[in-house]
Amino acid sequence: MADIIVSKFGGSSVANAGQIQKVRRIVEEDSRRRIVVVSAPGRSKSSEQKITDHLFNIATDGMHFRDQRLSIPVADSKLAVIERFTEILQQLDISGEGIIEALKQDLDCKLRGDRRVAFLASRGEHYNARIIAEYFQASGMEAEVGLPEDFGLLVSEQFLNASLLQEAYGNMQQLGGEKITVVPGFYGVTKSGEVAVFSRGGSDLTGGEIARGVHAASYENWTDVSGVFEADPRLVPEARAIPRLTFKEIRLLSSKGFNVFHLNAMLPCKERKIPIHIRNTNAPEEGGTVILFERVPEEGVVGVARLDSVAYIYLEKDMLGEEIGFTADLLGILREFGIQTYHFPTDKDDIAVLVNQDDLTGAINDLRRRIEQQLKPDFMDVVYNLSILTAVGLGLQGNSYPIVDALSALGKAHIPIEMIDQSPSQICFHIGVQQTVADDALKILYRALIG
Amino acid sequence: MADIIVSKFGGSSVANAGQIQKVRRIVEEDSRRRIVVVSAPGRSKSSEQKITDHLFNIATDGMHFRDQRLSIPVADSKLAVIERFTEILQQLDISGEGIIEALKQDLDCKLRGDRRVAFLASRGEHYNARIIAEYFQASGMEAEVGLPEDFGLLVSEQFLNASLLQEAYGNMQQLGGEKITVVPGFYGVTKSGEVAVFSRGGSDLTGGEIARGVHAASYENWTDVSGVFEADPRLVPEARAIPRLTFKEIRLLSSKGFNVFHLNAMLPCKERKIPIHIRNTNAPEEGGTVILFERVPEEGVVGVARLDSVAYIYLEKDMLGEEIGFTADLLGILREFGIQTYHFPTDKDDIAVLVNQDDLTGAINDLRRRIEQQLKPDFMDVVYNLSILTAVGLGLQGNSYPIVDALSALGKAHIPIEMIDQSPSQICFHIGVQQTVADDALKILYRALIG
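Structure tokens for the assembled complex are given below, as produced in the milestone run.
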């Protein structure tokens, strides 16, 4: 385990000069922070578009914003990107020699198709890393930029959904010397040297893969929130950041509505048991959340997640339970329709499958017809607008008091419960309620289980 | 709705002369009991074999008992059948003219294959019905035998797993006149007049189908227990018969371990909303259990069932939850192996499928190999010897107090809970525990929810 921390800073952490100065102070504070992975600049005002969206707009000839019912010409997007980087350079008070010229040239690139989209989309990270490295140097740090094309962050040729090649790990050994290396996230290069990007949110993945490649002591993920909260702080203002979580817990929470960084990005760290530390660039004094391979739980429940827009498809059929494979057939049909399923309680004569309600849009009539023709249920119903509240915690193992507390509290508040499940893995349980009462239910569960 | 009750008497209710005299008194007591369906004589001593088993033994040339590691020659089985019916005739003090001769001739029948097995297996019901009809007449009742071959209880040509043909319903209109008709259960005749039997337990089906065919006011199912109990009375001595249950409730209870009569046999009555009344021939003064199409619940839980020998197959795989269709694939494999599944909780990175443990015998190694090759889980485990306790009651709808009470009571008794589920249909919930503590858990749940 090298004594290196890989620190990844998200879009809001590097959105403007003021934020980049915070990044500098954070990096300076711990000499182990020798690999810094950066995103493209995020929004610096909520009114403006993200740099990366402008870049997609340029790449797609104006389609990108049109899809969002905005009309921004390509020329305006180019201008916005150039002005934004120019402004950052000026505010950081560095020359950035040649940077704006190179950027302009890149924006006029002649690539076509996916290669074009990948190349242009990656420019936000690319130029931001170059600017930040130069700023670090100008302010007296031993720093350099480490571009994927230079050190060989090799990826597959799926230009818009690339995956890392094994050789890349070896090439990463060049990183993490005495100097601080600033690496742009989100993209790599193919063996023939062309730019390809990870799926969006992929700067997190760059950070995770590099942490794995250099056997980092930890992977810091700096954002604009102070970690993973016990519950959505917009609904539960007293919710705090969870200090320590296992990979298993965070995955359960995020699958049920917690909005944390890209799950895929955790896998490289999980495999090598490298802890991930989620921290707030705007409040580095706060402890944040550490995601670990294992921990000893001191409490029952660490967090309550909420997943909205769940529907259930309910089928009744006499002797259904005797038909081996009925459920498999049903799930096969749902797969064919591309519908994500969450949970499948089944009984003798009925089965209820919870699904992502949005997946039913436009498909529900065909789906009903298909199920009726193939499975011939006696009765079929689709119920919409459920919310699933999920309590997660290693401390739930072999401990049924929390679910009793949860159900008692909801009962006392007269909140009807649509569904209850605690699975054999037993580090979480799920309670389904009508979406209209989900705000209240979340608050009640938080207070009963954590607060 | 005709003013007829179809009364079916099971094997123990017609096992000997004393029992048949009880049947006579029951039939006499209510003039609506004009169709009486009878089983073959059951064991009259626990040491002896059932008539129908002897008949299977004759049909299979001694194989039937050999499969049960008994050695009873065909000649002995023939003798046992003849002696038993002779004894019943003598004790009922009727001549039964020609009956024993006809029986002897039937036992020597020259049919082969499934036709032979079906014909011989049906002889217990056939001759019992003839004897009981004659006894009814001899004791002054207006009665006659109604044989499937005479009134046309037509069935398909699957000789050992026959199903009723639509025409049979029309033919049943001949039954239920002024006279009491005694009908042998379990068999019908094909269009070409050959005997074919329902799957075993099929006398219940004969009764249910006839109740449907004659639009009976109710279908009485007379047994040696006083109805459906709230919980297994061997474990919970204070458990009482449940007075009223819906079809839905009984199906849920019986799917989770309640041993009531053949579920298939309920379908004809359920379709026509004919109530089924389960009663005790040995205690006709007791109310028994009425199974109805609907009812207004006065309580939360009506019964707690217990299903043993449940195993769960647990799989972990990173990003499993993102793979649409992973569960469908898993269930497809289980179907291919003929393994019955009960319940499928699933989470982001894991899935646990509850299965009938007996189905895994001999198949588990191949199944593991197959799952590992096809689904490539990161981790796979099979946990054996779970019991699923299921609380059922219409009154559970929108009412979560019972599950809170159940979990609190188990918690207080320090019984670890492996699994909890209350499905959206919500008239039952399931609690999984280790089989070793299931006796205690059942008692605790009974006392917390019902007793």
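The longest strand of chain A covers residues 303-316. Residues 74-92 of chain A form the longest helix (19 residues). Further analysis is deferred to the final report.
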